[in-house]
Amino acid sequence: MKILIIEDEPSLQELMARSLAKEQHVVETASNYAEAESRLADYSYDCVLLDIMLPDGNGLRLLGELKAQDRREAVIIISARDSLEDKIRGLEDGADDYLPKPFHLAELSARIRSVARRTRGGGRRGITLGNVTVEPESFRAVVDGRELQLLKKEFDILAYFMQRPGHVIDKAVLAEAVWGDHIDQADNFNFVYSQMKNLRRKLEEAGATIELKAVYGFGYKLVCP
């Protein structure tokens, strides 16, 4: 998953980022309202961890902007303000969960997994297309009941496409989603081509009925029977 942490306390922000990165998530951070608004305008995320009290604005207003734009990001509010009024307002405004500070990192990870299951489709633990299943929580991919051995980025790419069947994905969008928004500093996308080539080969050799097809001049799309 690609996660944006919006948190103005440097030590907590770093602690959360390190913990989630160890769980193989792509993690980006913002320390204030303006920075968060800029990142959300330029990039998309799977989950946003949103502090209410930011030095230059209220996180609930940012939540309102996200929902008004019909954004797909799951939002978990993380805040030291644990009043019932704040919690109710956050949930009514469209937040997927509310986690008061202080919290254990294990609980944060569990909350993220929980909202990911809900937003990916009614609580399913895996995503299945054709004879291929990916399980984002355990980082497993299975073809016809046999586990497919993938590198971390290969799995991330496959999971990304499995959530968007039939959609043409531009190579730059794919790179940003899987490698993070610092990818715009890269000179070329050769690393994307290499990962895609290996993933497509592994799927074909495993007898997958889905196919990651190149769309000349645009990018790639997942085609399933």
TrEMBL record:
Keyword terms of this UniProt record: DNA-binding, Phosphoprotein, Transcription, Transcription regulation, Two-component regulatory system
Positions of the OmpR/PhoB-type domain: 124-224
CC annotations in GO: cytosol; protein-DNA complex
Entry keyword Phosphoprotein: yes
Positions bearing 4-aspartylphosphate: 51
PROSITE patterns: OMPR_PHOB, RESPONSE_REGULATORY
GO molecular function: phosphorelay response regulator activity; transcription cis-regulatory region binding
Name the record gives this protein: Response regulator transcription factor
UniProt entry tagged with the keyword Magnesium: no
Domain Response regulatory: 2-116
